[in-house]
Amino acid sequence: MIDTNIIISLINLINLTNIEFNRVICESLYYLSLDLNLLQSIYQYGFKKLKKLLEHTKDPSIFCSIINILAEFIHNNENISNDIILNMINFLKNSSYFLYLSRIIKSLRELTKIPQTIELFKQEEIFSQFILCLKNENNLDIKLNILFILQKCGKDNEASKMIIDNDGLQELWTLFKLASSSIKIAAGWAIRNCLASVENHGELIRSFDGVFYLILNMLSTENIDVLAVTLAIIAEIVKDEYNLKILTDLGIVLKISQLNYLDYAQLRKPFCDALANLSDLPKNQEQLGNRRVVIALKHYLQEQDPELYKPLTKVIYDLSRVPSNCGILHEVGIAPNLLKLIGDDDLIVQEKAANAIRNMRRLQNMNREIEQTFVKIVSQNPIQKTTDKRVKCFF
């Protein structure tokens, strides 16, 4: 067990003029900082001295060790210091010390969870550097950490535009197509987040050669996480009316209707989102109304996950607009689950659930009226007696 006195002793040994000695001390303090209790002690007794050393040193090892220590503290305490983050950004921009790049990127990834870091990324226009690293670096950890950074930044409207303007989306599509599964998944979520943040991205998507066929091919994967992110991307792409028609003509609805693994938790949200947006096209409403898909939708409703209610009720309402689908919805027994959502807090969920039930009841009432009319006709014209007479005449 390391006590506070050892940390104080290490900090007191820091000497601005002894580079070799400082390297060893700072590296030791970094590894000690991974323990949250020791991290607090390092910050309490050494913050000022470490920050002063950071301002004076030109040694990349010392710089990285101090940055990693301070980044750990900032992440765990949300006590933001812009100077420290800017130091990291400048190191990434100007340094040729690739040996330490992985450590800086890792710290930046942790700090990206804090909104202020993304604001500094935009201010310093760092995205071109991230994209350059993605293109040139073969280190798996560096690539993954940059992709996680871009995922976070992709949720910001302005940052996502800067990623796109620096050819980031093109590089992400390349990785999604050609990289290993872990990189493919990370790149896919970055793509999805960027598309979700940018309005009117239809023409942008169409500018990438082969992207629609790539999406269709990805639906054949057996990797659940790759399939999940593919469905999430589809949900965004088909928000554009023209892209929706292109993918529909290429047979995407049939492929999605035949998907396996629908009981996996990872697929619930992206599957529902994709179906909800695909069902905007009337011709897709009929194709999606097969027993297999409807059973999956009922199962998702039974999960009682509020995050799924909006896309679920939307797609079920769209399906209910086709009379033949109402029969399947009745057979599967989805109505009781919808009834529970009429009192949901979300007004859109309420409306879609109520309208779906209305459509189902309307068909049921029509069928009942037809049945009653038929019974009435039969009662007025006894078929059996007529048949008997015909039989007698025949013989």
TrEMBL record:
SMART domains, per the entry: ARM (SM00185)
Lineage: superkingdom: Eukaryota
Xref: PANTHER family: ARMADILLO REPEAT-CONTAINING PROTEIN 4 ARMC4 (PTHR46241), OUTER DYNEIN ARM-DOCKING COMPLEX SUBUNIT 2 (PTHR46241:SF1)
Record protein name field: Armadillo repeat-containing protein 8
Organism: Rotaria magnacalcarata
